[in-house]
């Protein structure tokens, strides 16, 4: 195994930071499917119960690491509702926990035996939870008695946790004394939530429990890149986490997954998020000038637009609201107009086949939803998965490149398989101009040592 991950001991503990309002909201999926079924006179679908979610979390899908030259780690990850989950091991004896990879928040927190309150604590009689007061590799068990810090997320989830230093095994290597926030309270708004989040906030944020603060110094290239496998469906809530739904690469981006150059967009330096300027959205012949900040957030499933913008886009698509989701008429999908996002002068287009997902095997749902209460515009995983994306910590840039694999045919419920010949020009998802000055240095061949 490469020793590229043996990290210098470096811990900068800041004062208790203010609560963070990251965003990773997902409307109530089970409720929406039940409502769609009721409206159509169908049998109600099975809901994801808390028990099923916990059962899934008992057997976290393994994250297989393939490491290459320069300490690049290419790691397979699981998926749920388009977002990605990495399984890491924490403490001694090691406990495996699948945690969501989230560019929309800064903190690494994991469920723990310290969890005493909220809807998300595990049933401790059945589960071997990570216990930072008993782990043999914890640096200072007394740290677990500190006053918890609080994190709030855009979907209403609240976490309270204490920062401890313990061994974390990720990407095939052990990081000693990694600061991790051990959950003491996990409160989720409706459906059962995550067992942890790997916050991957941008370089200008500082957090007492940041994983990448330390990882980034260990690789030649200070980047985290994401590949979402579009042939793997992750919207069936009864399955829990779906294995092999994508890949996260730490270090040099995986050249096997993208083609042509990255298009790099600078992030807004005045924001503490991975956010960029969204100049405009064009739908059909109409261009909506926006000039707003938008988050590029792997931890949010859908695309959140402000009310006025959303209403315009949705009117064109004909979506009907059902529990915060917008149901589309499956028979009309092929006539949806292409939608183009202009980020800092560069266009990215989603054609009709990239504007919906299927719930419960039957209901077609828009990838767009409305942001309420003045929350931010978010390009979530439903957008990001159409590209190979790379978050560059050294240069404060986000790169998008074309995927090597084609989007698979989706079956439109009630209709025959998508007929590509009717799909109009299936041109590239977006035309990436050559950004010579920003092009990657000749990418190192990624030697895969499984
Ligand atoms: C490491 O990566 C850099 C930049 O990606 C590349 O130029 C160099 O050849 C790589 N070195 C090795 C040993 O692969
Ligand atoms: C950052 O600046 C942009 C314009 O340059 C503005 O739209 C945005 O609201 C600012 N964000 C914050 C968090 O101040
Ligand atoms: C960016 O992050 C900060 C703190 O993490 C948060 O308060 C703010 O609302 C975020 N901005 C957006 C646009 O989400
Ligand atoms: C969907 O569109 C078709 C074709 O226009 C129409 O016949 C059908 O009634 C619509 N279904 C619903 C549920 O609106």
UniProtKB/TrEMBL annotation:
Sequence ranges assigned to domain Peptidase A1 in this UniProt record = 84-401
> In the UniProt record, does the keyword Signal occur?
yes
Q: Which UniProt keywords apply?
A: Signal
The residue range of the signal peptide is 1-22
| Ranges in coiled-coil conformation | none
**Keyword set includes Transmembrane helix:** no
Family affiliation: Belongs to the peptidase A1 family.
Tell me the protein's name: Peptidase A1 domain-containing protein
Which organism does this record belong to? Polyrhizophydium stewartii
């Amino acid at each position: 195994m490469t020793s590229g991950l043996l990290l210098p001991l470096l811990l900068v503990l800041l004062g208790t930071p203010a609560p963070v309002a990251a965003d990773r909201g997902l409307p109530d999926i089970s409720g929406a499917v039940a409502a769609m079924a009721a409206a159509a006179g169908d049998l109600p679908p099975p809901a994801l119960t808390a028990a099923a979610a916990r059962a899934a979390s008992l057997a976290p899908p393994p994250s297989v690491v393939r490491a290459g030259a320069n300490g690049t780690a290419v790691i397979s990850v699981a998926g749920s509702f388009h977002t990605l989950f990495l399984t890491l091991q924490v403490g001694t004896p090691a406990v495996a926990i699948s945690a969501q990879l989230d560019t929309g928040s800064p903190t690494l927190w994991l469920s723990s035996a310290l969890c005493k309150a909220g809807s998300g604590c595990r049933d401790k009689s059945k589960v071997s939870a990570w216990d930072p007061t008993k782990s043999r590799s914890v640096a200072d068990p007394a740290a677990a008695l500190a006053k918890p810090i609080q994190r709030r997320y855009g979907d209403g989830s609240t976490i309270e946790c204490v920062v401890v230093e313990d061994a974390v095994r990720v990407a095939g290597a052990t990081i000693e004394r990694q600061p991790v926030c051990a959950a003491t309270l996990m409160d989720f708004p409706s459906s059962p939530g995550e067992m942890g989040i790997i916050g991957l906030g941008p370089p200008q944020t500082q957090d007492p429990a940041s994983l990448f603060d330390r990882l980034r110094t260990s690789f030649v290239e200070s980047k985290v890149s994401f590949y979402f496998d579009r042939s793997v469906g992750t919207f069936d809530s009864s399955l829990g986490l779906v294995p092999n739904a994508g890949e996260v690469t730490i270090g040099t981006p995986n050249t096997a997954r993208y083609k042509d150059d990255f298009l790099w967009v600078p992030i807004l330096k005045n924001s503490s998020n991975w956010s960029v300027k969204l100049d405009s959205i064009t739908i059909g012949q109409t261009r909506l000038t926006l000039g707003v900040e938008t988050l590029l957030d792997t931890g949010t499933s859908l695309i959140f637009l402000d009310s006025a913008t959303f209403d315009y886009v949705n009117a064109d698509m004909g979506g009907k609201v059902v529990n915060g989701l917008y149901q589309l008429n499956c028979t009309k999908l092929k006539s949806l107009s292409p939608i183009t996002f202009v980020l800092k002068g560069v266009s990215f287009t989603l054609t009709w086949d990239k504007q919906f997902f299927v719930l419960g095997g039957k209901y077609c749902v828009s990838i767009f939803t409305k942001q309420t209460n003045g929350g931010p515009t978010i390009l979530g995983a439903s957008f990001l998965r159409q590209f190979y994306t790379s978050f560059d910590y050294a240069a404060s840039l986000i790169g998008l490149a074309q995927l090597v694999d084609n989007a698979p045919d989706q079956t439109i419920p009630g209709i025959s398989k998508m007929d590509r010949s009717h799909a109009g020009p299936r041109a590239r998802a977006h035309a990436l101009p050559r950004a010579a000055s920003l092009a990657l240095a000749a990418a190192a061949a990624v030697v895969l040592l499984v």
